[in-house]
Amino acid sequence: MIRVLLVDDQPLLRSGFRALLDLEDDIEVVAEAADGAEGLALAREHLPDIVLIDIRMPVLDGIEATRRIAADPALAGVHVVILTNYGFDEYVFDALRAGAAGFLVKDIVPEDLLHAVRVAARGDALLAPAITRKLIDRYVSQPLHPAAARGLQELTNREREAVALVAQGLSNDEIADRMVISPMTAKTHVNRAMTKLHARDRAQLVVLAYESGLVAPHQR
């Protein structure tokens, strides 16, 4: 069962999402919150698999709430998915850096919402190719991040190759095909890289790949 916490200051949106999610046999909404501070407290109380959280809220916004969830060892298994009205903007980028697994636009169709919850619960990144391109564009004029670059030294050549492919939006099966290895081995390379780079999930792995210079902005 995938346990979901809804955090949004719009009661109507929370009710609509809950009604949709609770219809599924494998998904359960365990709690709702109207701001980030309440959401953080409920995350600690219920330990959900997924937190669907609005990016802009009173008291504590979604970015800071995401940052605190990501920094709390007791919430290591919680995947945060950002809800936004605006598509990819600077706030979503900051949320990804804070530890979010991805983002959803609030007018998402029901089928895509259900798919996204299941994808995030598996630990995969919710980053469509268009979002990856936005990340690339963001780094065109950005200096390399020294700490991220140093972290690459801990990776094997095959792990670096796998991370670069993750940053290009490939799934484990696609990485396996490209590297001519089994999907399980591809998953192992990705997971070991995440551990060594202290990345919570694939979304952070993508960010680190660009911050470190492993993938250059012109590689689209």
TrEMBL record:
Transcription listed as a keyword: yes
Modified residues (4-aspartylphosphate): 54
Domain HTH luxR-type, chain residue ranges per copy: 148-213
One record GO biological process: phosphorelay signal transduction system
Keyword set, alphabetical order: DNA-binding, Phosphoprotein, Transcription, Transcription regulation
Pfam families: GerE, Response_reg
Keyword Transcription regulation found: yes
Gene3D superfamilies reported for this sequence: 3.40.50.2300
Transmembrane segments: none
Domain Response regulatory: 3-121
Gene Ontology MF terms in the entry: DNA binding
Official protein name in the record: LuxR family transcriptional regulator
Lineage: Bacteria, Bacillati, Actinomycetota, Actinomycetes, Kitasatosporales
